[in-house]
Amino acid sequence: xxxxxxxxxxxxxxxxxxxxxxxxxxxxxxxxxxxxxxxxxxxxxxxxxxxxxxxxxxxxxxxxxxxxxxxxxxxxxxxxxxxxxxxxxxxxxxxxxxxxxxxxxxxxxxxxxxxxxxxxxxxxxxxxxxxxxxxxxxxxxxxxxxxxxxxxxxxxxxxxxxxxxxxxxxxxxxxxxxxxxxxxxxxxxxxxxxxxxxxxxxxxxxxxxxxxxxxxxxxxxxxxxxxxxxxxxxxxxxxxxxxxxxxxxxxxxxxxxxxxxxxxxxxxxxxxxxxxxxxxxxxxxxxxxxxxxxxxxxxxxxxxxxxxxxxxxxxxxxxxxxxxxxxxxxxxxxxxxxxxxxxxxxxxxxxxxxxxxxxxxxxxxxxxxxxxxxxxxxxxxxxxxxxxxxxxxx
Length: 394
Ligand SMILES: Cc1cc2nc3c(=O)[nH]c(=O)nc-3n(C[C@H](O)[C@H](O)[C@H](O)COP(=O)(O)OP(=O)(O)OC[C@H]3O[C@@H](n4cnc5c(N)ncnc54)[C@H](O)[C@@H]3O)c2cc1C
Fold this sequence. Notes:
Elements: E1 5-14, H1 18-28, E2 34-37, E3 54-55, H2 70-77, E4 107-108, H3 111-125, E5 128-130, E6 134-140, E7 146-153, E8 156-167, H4 173-177, E9 182-184, E10 192-197, E11 203-206, E12 209-213, H5 232-253, E13 261-265, E14 276-278, E15 296-301, E16 309-313, E17 325-327, H6 336-342, H7 345-364, H8 374-382, H9 390-393
Parallel strand pairs: 1-2, 1-8, 2-5, 8-17
Antiparallel strand pairs: 3-4, 6-7, 7-8, 9-14, 10-12, 10-13, 11-12, 15-16
Helix pairs in contact: 1-3, 1-7, 2-7, 7-8
Bound molecules: flavin-adenine dinucleotide.
Flavin-adenine dinucleotide (FAD) binds near residues 38 and 134.
């Protein structure tokens, strides 16, 4: 195949969601020539294109900050172009979901405004960004090391060659294309839509604008789309639109005026929470919170329940067989309850930063990321105030 371009980088980050942005920032700020490849016209992934507007907490819900570095930076900058303030309220109610009510160190943001902030950070760090550029194939060496990504955009078919890769695609696309093992997850039809609503009462922007969130009902059946069906995801998206039509039709039939209630913006990404994740060298699963892992490279406070803190074993970022590549964000190797805990914005930022740092160190050390010294990685992360074991918190 002939390519319109073949560009060379130290680190290529696949996917410009929160995990990808964090990975690219971490790599570029350490002097690596870094590229970020994003399929959408926006940066931020689900957090912006998917109309998610709550940066969930990075504290333990009992008054202690658990995650630092870029996870902290992206939280503090999130309100920059929006109407919300960053609350410094610590120690939310014990147990339970705070639902964005800011009793933990979390905040709301304008999805559109956040794109502007993320872009500014990438620009300042010198990351080469490609938007509307889809990774459609991966080249590998005989030992399973990823050597290049093949992309498609307006310029035609191109090639991005790099020393290391970060798969932050949210659905493990790089690892899948490289032949690595993945698991798919269960999802529910729970669209979020930005709407005009007179006297807004849901997730409120101002008195007439809210994020209407269709949350999962108690006994809801998972939405079973077939990942092998070429129209599987299309069905999921169009059924969310059907649900929205039903909601507006019923509202109008009950006498609510079209002038008072109408959609302003629909999500520009499929709102699946757990699409596909790598099978890693280690996997976090039910009951792994508060467990100690010798390989831990970070700490993460569960967004759902106070005092539930997870150590982050390095192996959950490493695909079982695919080399030269780390995963970040909602496609890392977590399962069951751990996948639900780790599929959100703060953990995307956290694992993004760790993968970006590890990618750069592994280039310097001329080692595969899987062979990188944990002491070296932790030494670099400790400079950002990272802690690694639950016992350090208490
Ligand atoms: C309905 C719903 C509500 C949620 N509510 C919250 C909430 O309140 N708070 C919270 O913190 N989290 C919430 N989440 C979860 C959270 O938004 C995401 O899981 C998180 O932002 C994931 O970030 P990520 O970077 O790992 O992945 P993504 O955001 O999925 O980013 C992956 C990026 O990779 C790109 N990509 C994928 N494939 C390719 C390819 N082949 N080529 C190029 N680019 C590619 C995608 O376009 C995307 O931009 C919610 C999710 C849903 C669905």
